[in-house]
Design a protein that fits this description.
Helix 2 packs across helix 10 and helix 3 packs parallel to helix 4 (86-94). 41% of the residues are buried. Strands 1, 2, 3, 4, 6, 7, 8, 9 and 11 form a 9-stranded mixed sheet that branches. By secondary structure, this protein is α/β, with parallel strands linked by helices. It has 2 domains: 2-105 and 236-266, 3-Layer(aba) Sandwich (D-Maltodextrin-Binding Protein, domain 2); 107-232, Periplasmic binding protein-like II (D-Maltodextrin-Binding Protein, domain 2, 3-Layer(aba) Sandwich). Helices cover 37% and strands 23% of the residues.
């Protein structure tokens, strides 16, 4: 008993000397995509409630920055709304990192306009021409006689890269477009400008903006899963090598149908199951 009491005394003394972090099981750092951000925040909050000895810190910055942080070893989990590129894999291997992808949800990228805009549908060709600057007035696509204000994501965004691939067909967005660093900034920009058009992940769709159908197809859970909506994609979390410890426990929680995936649906995205 004396030995046990001495051990407790030593542990308490160490806690007082080294501070409260000694008692924490661990810390998980997550960086990257603003599209994945709402999912990460919801799941992290639920996880920390169930595991109060684990601290999770989350920041945005775009998919490119999330993958870069995995390569550099400055994050445990890199959130990305696109798959890793070949040149990023090459750089990672050169730096002794092996990025492991986990598909955590599905998403579709929805074009949005101000709620007062009478346009409700655009074709893929019309979207491409608008973002190339070839169509610059809403009347040319059945809307009011107003000059179109084009809002796009910046080039570090995975959402931008998917838009560039699926809508622009590798053509560049024209220089007159206003670039925003996050989905939330696009929503704000469109909500405050009656002439504007932008594009956002489905989880950011709200009453401040009006979502458009594309080629007559509405972006929904069903059309995302069956591929009918033409601008759909998977969302990812990357780890630096196969996850271990707290990161592995969090990823297992994230993928669980009745745990993390429940919060995917809560945030407006499409769960895996």
């Amino acid at each position: 008993m004396k030995k046990r009491n001495m051990m407790v005394t030593v542990m308490l003394a160490l806690a007082m000397i080294l501070g409260p972090n000694l008692l924490l099981a661990g810390e998980i750092v997550m960086k990257g995509s603003t599209t994945v951000l709402p999912i990460a925040q919801e799941v992290a909050e639920a996880y920390m409630k169930e595991n109060p000895d684990v601290k999770i810190s989350i920041s945005g910055g775009g998919s490119g920055n999330g993958i870069k942080a995995i390569i550099d070893g400055t994050t445990d989990i890199g959130n990305s709304s696109r798959f890793i590129k070949g040149k990023e894999v090459k750089l990672a291997l050169e730096r002794g990192a092996y990025p492991v992808p986990f598909g955590v949800a599905y998403d579709c990228i929805i074009p949005v306009v101000h709620p007062s805009n009478s346009v409700s549908n655009l074709s893929m060709d019309q979207l491409k021409d608008i973002y190339m600057g070839k169509i610059n007035n809403w009347k040319d696509v059945g809307g009011p006689d107003m000059k179109i204000t084009v809002i796009s994501r910046d080039t570090s965004s995975g959402t931008y890269e998917v838009w560039e691939e699926k809508v622009m067909k590798k053509e560049r967005v024209f220089p007159g477009a206003l670039l925003q660093a996050s989905n939330g900034a696009v929503v704000t920009g469109v909500a405050q400008n009656k002439n504007a058009v932008g594009y956002i992940g489905i989880g950011y769709l709200n009453a401040e903006v009006k979502g458009l159908t594309v080629d007559g197809v509405q972006g929904t859970k069903e059309t995302t899963l069956n591929g009918a909506f033409p601008v759909s994609r998977a969302l990812y979390m990357f780890t630096r090598g196969w996850p271990t410890g707290d990161a592995a426990k969090f990823m297992n929680y994230m993928m669980h149908p009745e745990k993390g995936q429940k919060y995917v649906e809560k945030t407006g995205y499409v769960p895996l199951y």
